[in-house]
Write a structure and sequence with these properties.
heterodimer, A: 265 residues, alpha/beta, Rossmann fold, 2 domains, four-stranded antiparallel sheet, 8 helices, globular, B: 352 residues, mainly alpha, ABC transporter involved in vitamin B12 uptake, BtuC, two-stranded antiparallel ribbon, 75% helix
Chain lengths: 265, 352
């Protein structure tokens, strides 16, 4: 069932000295981090701090310039690491908006990249549709709102889209779920649903990296907060040790500091 | 679906409209039937007899094979303008191999390999080097057409000796003594392409690449390799179209690709495939290509002066594309009505 993946491990993912440069621009500088097997880690920082870039490295979308990566305590070979490999290692990512193809029906979106096929690569459409309909009506509560496996994504609201992307992660039974600002542009009632899902990740024994602008949400939910600033990891905080007010003040002060190179740190 | 629609007459009518619109390629099938009916009335001497239809079954297949491949390319949000050069290059390779070895099947394999080579080169340039497909294929169209001219010295090559052979029988003979084999092959390939586009993993990857490249990338699709596969497939289909064409004519011309570029593309777009990628209809391409293939003969048969042919083709093309847009989203009709309303107001205000 678990595809030969290790069952006992301390960290689902651990990074050492990850750096990434685009030409002269350093997007990430010497990042060290470790995520426990049942830990909700909030990743915060200003726009352009490198949050999205960091999770792209962790999930195989982008290869770093240097650094080492360990998954379930075993080192990963960068040459073989890819989105596909990350899927196999049971990492799932829910992006702000680019998780779903607008013009495609939901059943394709749920299975793209992991289609149920026969040995010639032809998709078993009936099976995919059936599983997609189960997922939509039972786990996501889309029954009776006119959405089924054949609906095109372009007909869904922003919250419904996040619901589908999150449902997909649940369906594929991920051990690490990365949420990249999943509540941006959602109605309050829909934000509540997303936050409940983040709690259910914790309850089901999985790990989660949660990128969020709304500090109140992340302060409420996360076991630990990592703060990124201009490509560097500048703080590793337990929410219990700092109040929401102090956290907010800390982040604002961070933004008003000079670029890190000029402070003589 | 019904529950979200307003109840009452309008809702019901919209419901029917949507169910009809879901039949793949329906608008273009209606256009084809209307056109055929029109030609039957205007030129009964030609269109109420079977030889004209039999002749379409030998002239349309090479274009249909090309259009089926182009539908996949357009679905991926790409374009291929180099296939006319494959018709020339693969045709030359075939004629050359037949002349040197006398083995027609060897020539067939070489022609297919030549098509694959052109497509593979396109795919590497587009997928790995990153040159946009429209630019790549303009360049390779000139290059391979040039290569075919150089190698053949611009000469044509008669291949009459193949008329009794097995290759000719398989690709240009008749089935049950009546149906041209080209039509059987082209129809079979179009069905296969429908399954690859709509039911195969590769087709789904193409649709996502055309829909949104970022989504395709994060879904784990290897965009560069799928692009290489896509253009190699297009090259192979171009090589096959070259074989159908060369065997039907039993002659190779250095210029035999000319005149296929726009009609094959028109067949794809008249069929309802969106130029923006992410959606495509193989059924639409099938009937769209037949419309393009019968228009010229049809217009000439009605007795209208030959000068009119292109203008009428253009009108039918634009009308068909508008029809697709309206069927897809009836709201566009309202937007259009709104625009004409504005123009009327503008006209009234103008002189004052």
């Amino acid at each position: 069932m678990r595809d030969g993946l290790a069952r006992t491990y301390q960290h689902i993912v651990r990074a050492e000295g990850i750096s990434l440069s685009y030409g002269n621009i350093r997007a990430l500088s010497d990042i060290d981090l470790a995520i426990g097997r049942n830990e909700i880690v909030g990743l915060i920082g200003d726009n352009g701090a490198g949050k999205s870039t960091l999770i792209k490295v962790l999930t195989g979308v982008v290869r770093p310039t240097s650094g080492r990566l360990f998954v379930r305590d075993a080192e990963v070979d960068w040459a073989r690491y890819s989105v596909h490999e990350a899927h196999r290692l049971r990492f799932e990512t829910v992006y702000q908006e680019k998780s779903l193809g607008d013009k495609q029906p939901l059943w394709r979106n749920i299975f793209v990249g992991r289609q149920i096929t026969n040995r010639f690569g032809f998709i078993k459409v009936d099976e995919e549709r059936r599983v997609a309909n189960d997922l939509l009506s039972q786990r996501l509560g889309f029954r009776g709102v006119g959405i089924d496996a054949n609906s095109a994504v372009s007909k869904l609201s922003g919250g419904e889209r996040q619901g589908v992307a999150i449902g997909r992660a649940m369906h594929f039974d991920a051990d690490l779920i990365v949420l990249d600002e999943p509540t941006v542009a959602l109605a309050i009632s829909e934000v509540r649903k997303v936050l409940d899902f983040v709690r259910s990740i914790k309850d089901s024994g999985r790990a989660c990296i949660y990128i969020e602008h709304n500090l109140a949400h992340v302060h409420e939910l996360a076991d630990r907060l990592l703060v990124l600033d201009r490509g560097r990891l500048v703080a590793n905080i337990k929410p219990g040790d700092i109040s929401l007010e102090d956290l907010t003040k800390f982040l604002i002060d961070l933004q008003h500091r000079l670029p890190s190179g000029r402070e003589g740190r | 679906m019904e529950s979200v629609l307003p109840t009452g007459g309008l809702g019901k009518r919209l419901g029917h409209w949507r169910r009809l619109a879901q039949i793949e390629g329906l608008p273009i099938i209606v256009v084809l039937l209307l056109l055929t009916g029109l030609f039957m009335v205007a030129a009964p001497g030609v269109f109420l007899r079977w030889p004209i239809y039999l002749s379409f079954l030998t002239t349309v297949p090479p274009m249909l094979v090309l259009a089926a491949g182009l539908t996949m390319v357009v679905a991926a949000g790409e374009i291929d303008l180099s296939f006319p050069s494959v018709l020339a290059f693969s045709g030359f390779l075939f004629a050359w191999a037949v002349g040197v070895t006398g083995n027609a099947w060897l020539g067939f394999l070489l022609a297919m390999a030549g098509g694959a080579l052109v497509g593979f080169t396109n795919g590497v340039l587009i997928g790995f080097v990153g040159v946009p497909s429209i630019i790549t294929t303009i360049g390779t169209q000139f290059f391979w057409a040039g290569v075919a001219s150089i190698l053949s010295g611009g000469m044509s090559d008669a291949l009459q000796q193949l008329a009794g052979g097995s290759l000719y029988a398989v690709f240009a003979g008749t089935l049950f003594g009546a149906i041209p084999m080209q039509a059987v092959w082209a129809a079979g390939l179009t069905v296969l392409m429908w399954f690859i586009l709509n039911r195969h993993r590769f087709g789904e990857h193409i649709l996502f690449m055309g829909d949104n490249r970022n989504v395709a990338k994060v879904a784990g699709i290897n965009i560069a390799w799928e692009t290489v596969k896509l253009f190699t497939l297009m090259g192979l289909l171009g090589g096959f179209a070259a074989m159908l064409l060369t065997l039907e004519n039993l002659n190779y011309f250095a210029t035999q690709g000319q005149g296929y570029l726009l009609p094959a593309l028109a067949g794809v777009f008249i069929g309802g495939t969106s130029v923006f990628g992410g959606t495509a209809t193989m059924v639409g391409t099938f009937f769209g290509t037949f419309i393009i293939g019968m228009l010229e003969a049809g217009i000439v048969a009605t007795g209208i002066a030959g000068f009119w042919v292109q203008a009428i083709e253009g009108v039918i093309f634009v009308v068909a594309v508008i029809l697709h847009l309206v069927v897809e989203s009836p709201t566009r009709l309202r937007a259009f009505a709104g625009m004409t309303g504005r123009w009327q107001r503008f006209g009234r205000r103008g002189p004052g």
